[in-house]
Structures are given as C-alpha cells and as structure tokens.
C-alpha cells in the first residue's frame, strides 16, 4: 500500500513539473519566436530530412559490407561509458533527485523507493529509445549486429548510471583514482590484451563500488540537480538567464576554492609550524631519504629482479619513518589547540614533497634497466596512488595512537597493497590492482575536531 501511494505521489510530482516546464516553453515561444521563422525553419528541416534519406541510401551498402567489423566495436562501449561516467561524476550525479523528491522523503515516502523510481525511469526511457532505433536499423542492417549494439548500449548505460551515482558523493581522491583506472581500461581495450580479461576487471570495478557503503551527500546532489532540472537551455538562451548551482564542483573549482583561502586559513599557520619542525629534524630526514634512494638504486643494478622487493621495502620504510616523526605532534604544537584534519593535511604536504627523490630514483633505475616508457608511466601512476593513500592512512593512525583511541588498522589490505606494488614492478599491468584495492579501503578514520595539546 505504501509503495502504491508513493508511486502515485511521485507521478503527480513529475506531471506537475512537466506541466510547468511546458508552460514556460509556451511563454518563451510567444515572447521571442516569430511564426514566420518557425514556418521556414520547418521547411528547412523537411528539406534536410530528404537529403539525409538520399545520403543514407548511399551509405547502406557500405554499412552492410562492414557489418561484421562494426559489430566487434560494440564491445568497446562498456569501457567508453564507464570512463565517461567517472569523468562526469565530478559535476553530475546522473540521477535527477531534486529538492522536491527530498521533501517527499521527509513524509512517509521512503527515499530509497523514490530513488529506485528515478533509476527505473531513466533506464526505461533509454531502453525504449534503443528499441525504436533497433526497429529502424533492422530494415537495412543485419539483425544480429543491431541486437549486439543495442544490448551493449543498454548494459553499458545501466552500469555507468549506477557507477556515476555511487561515485558522485565520493571524495576527490576516489574520483581521480576511478578516472585513472577506467581510462587505463579503455586504453588497454584497444591493445592485444584479451577482452574477456578486461571485462572481468570491468565487472569487478563496478561491483566493488556497488558493494561499498554509500554515504550520499544529499545537499550537494539536490543543489546540482535543481540547477540542472530548471536550467532549460532554450529558455536560458532566449532570456539570457541561466540557473547555476551556488558552487561548482569541478576539479579546478575545488582546487581554486582551496587556493583562495591560503592566506586566511589555519592551514598556512600549521604548514609553517611543520616546516620549522622539519628543519630541526633535517639530519634525520636526509639520512632516511638517502637510505631509501640507495636501496632503490644500488641493489637492482647488481640484481635487476630485486627491484620487486626493494621498492615495497623503500616505500614502507619511508612511510614508517614519516609516521614516527608525526608522533612528536604534541611537542611540536606545545600548548596550541590542534585541529586534527588541518594538522594532518599540512604535514602530508611536506611528506609528499620529501618523497620526490624516491620517485626520481625509481624512474632512474627503471630507465637504466631498460624498461619501456609506457611501463614506467603505468608503474609511476600506481606508485603515486599507493604512496598518496598509504602515507595518509599511516599518519591518520599515528594521530589516533597519540590520542589513545581505538581503530581498525586494516593491515592485511596494506600488505596486499605492497604485494601489488612489487607485482607491478614485475609486470606493469599488475599496478591496476592498486586502484581497485584503494576503492575498497575506508577513506577516513574517526577524529575529534580540536584537541588542546
């Protein structure tokens, strides 16, 4: 009974919204559009349709000859769709859950049910459009080829829809990792690697994101969707009034907002405090960096396969030393109040910069050993992702240790990450295991907001 009432209310809401949009289009039409222009525009469209029909008759024989090679290209659609979904997740959730649906969910109408209606509606509309195209295309193309393209499109669209929705509320790190991973899958699909292996990785990627607990940022979702639903392009061009979200959520906009506050935020103060601490510990730092660089450079020159072992060891040693230095956080800030998140992020900036010699050493030894450049690039991407995430995790755990709070360290995932890092040295494609592993790892640990040292 509840599902029936929710469906009726949802349909009533969609009908009212559609009616209001049609009314706005009618008003804009009567204000701006000249009927004479519409008449001649209609004649021009009819003329273009006849031209298109003649062109299609000339193309049909070519399409029939190349039907089999074109059918194979349909297998690339899942990788293209999933990559587009990962890139689009920065600014668009893909599902139009607006403030109206949010207000309905505050009444006795389950939010998950409303969300399922929205998913179902988008899938049905796209499926109906694909069926119409199949009916048209069957008249001049082989049925098997058209069905394969249609099924590939529908399956890719459904997977990308769920993928984008789950990824939209994730952090900037998760989105970037997903873009790198899906882009790599797309690039590899054009190589000689068997497609069934890439499809297995594709399915695993989607399933990993779906099984994770998703904390939806409903405020961000509603703000973006309200602007997208009511920013009607034709009316916006006619009236020169464009509805936009209060904040933009692209990568450059997020980074620009962070940069704008660099002189007025506590981040700058914390960075200066940590710089002073690094200068006092300079001897300890340069000895550690020199040691890990020598581990990477000297041993593999004698025995090249030892790089499989020395790289995880060097990265692990560096992370543990960086974590050990962070344990002195209470002596660094003395009686100053410590904001955990700002303190950790400012410390990590210095730790990441200090890791550059390690990356340069790894590139140098791989170049000396004659590794292909494409392999080095893939290995560097995997190494940077792992160092970025693992070092952050180590510092978060050290903070909780200082605060004497309990936490789950997920040590087996860290061990698996170092194994994947070593395997990536043996074969660059193994580096693609690292983004998958990071997507299954909890991004945040529990923190107290401010602690007085």
What coarse outline follows from CA principal-axis ratios?
globular
Number of helices: 21
Any idea how many domains?
2
On the 0 to 100 scale, the average pLDDT is 78
* Approximate strand percentage: under 5%
Q: What spatial order of strands do you see in the largest sheet? A: 1-2
Q: What would you call the quaternary organization?
A: single chain
Category from helices, strands and their pairing = mainly alpha
H/E series:
HHHHHHHHHHHHHHHHEHHHHHE
Give me the count of strands: 2
Radius of gyration: 28 Å
Contiguous runs where pLDDT drops below 50 for at least 5 residues: 447-453
From the N-terminal CA to the C-terminal CA, the straight-line distance is: 57 Å
For the biggest sheet, the summary is:
2 strands, antiparallel
Helix share bin = over 70%
Short note summarizing the structure:
The protein is mostly helical and 453 residues long. It folds into two domains: 2-33 and 66-233, no CATH class; 261-452, no CATH class. 77% of the residues lie in helices and 1% in strands.
Which key terms come to mind for this protein?
453 residues, mainly alpha, 2 domains, two-stranded antiparallel ribbon, globular
């Amino acid at each position: 009974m509840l599902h029936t009432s929710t469906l009726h209310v949802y349909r009533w809401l969609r009908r009212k919204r559609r009616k209001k949009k049609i009314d706005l289009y009618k008003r804009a039409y009567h204000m701006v559009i000249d009927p004479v222009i519409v008449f001649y525009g209609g004649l021009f469209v009819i003329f273009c349709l006849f031209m298109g029909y003649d062109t299609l008759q000339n193309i049909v024989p070519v399409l029939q000859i190349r039907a089999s090679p074109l059918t194979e290209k349909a297998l690339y659609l899942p990788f293209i769709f999933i990559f587009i979904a990962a890139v689009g997740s920065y600014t668009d959730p893909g599902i139009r859950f607006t403030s109206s649906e949010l207000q309905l969910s505050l009444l006795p109408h389950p939010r998950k049910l409303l969300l399922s209606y929205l998913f179902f509606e988008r899938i049905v509309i796209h499926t109906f459009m694909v069926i119409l195209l199949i009916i048209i295309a069957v008249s001049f193309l082989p049925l098997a080829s058209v069905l394969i393209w249609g099924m590939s499109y529908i399956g890719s669209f459904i997977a990308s829809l769920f993928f984008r929705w789950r990824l939209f509320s994730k952090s900037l790190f998760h989105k970037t990792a997903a873009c790198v991973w899906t882009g790599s899958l797309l690039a590899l699909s054009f190589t000689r690697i068997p497609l069934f292996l890439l499809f297995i990785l594709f399915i695993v990627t989607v399933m990993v994101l779906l099984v994770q607990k998703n904390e939806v940022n409903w405020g961000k979702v509603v703000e973006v969707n309200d602007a997208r639903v009511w920013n009607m392009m034709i009316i916006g061009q006619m009236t020169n009034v464009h509805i936009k979200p209060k904040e933009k959520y692209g990568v450059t906009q997020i980074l620009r907002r962070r940069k704008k506050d660099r002189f007025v935020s506590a981040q700058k103060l914390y960075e200066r405090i940590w710089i002073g601490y690094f200068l006092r510990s300079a001897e300890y730092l340069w000895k550690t960096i020199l040691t890990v660089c020598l581990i990477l450079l000297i041993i593999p020159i004698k025995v090249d396969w030892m790089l499989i072992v020395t790289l995880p060891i060097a990265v692990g040693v560096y992370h543990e030393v960086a974590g050990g230095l962070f344990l002195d956080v209470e002596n660094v800030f003395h009686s100053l109040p410590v904001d955990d998140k700002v303190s950790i992020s400012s410390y990590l900036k210095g730790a990441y910069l200090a890791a550059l010699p390690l990356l340069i050493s790894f590139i140098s030894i791989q170049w000396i050993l004659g590794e292909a450049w494409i392999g080095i690039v893939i290995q560097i991407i995997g190494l940077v992702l792992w160092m970025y995430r693992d070092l952050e995790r180590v510092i978060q755990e050290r903070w909780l240790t200082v605060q004497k709070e309990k936490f789950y360290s997920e040590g087996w995932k860290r061990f698996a990450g170092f194994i994947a890092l070593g395997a990536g040295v043996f074969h660059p494609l193994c580096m693609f295991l690292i983004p998958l592993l990071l997507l299954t790892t909890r991004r945040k640990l529990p923190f107290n907001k401010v602690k007085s040292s």
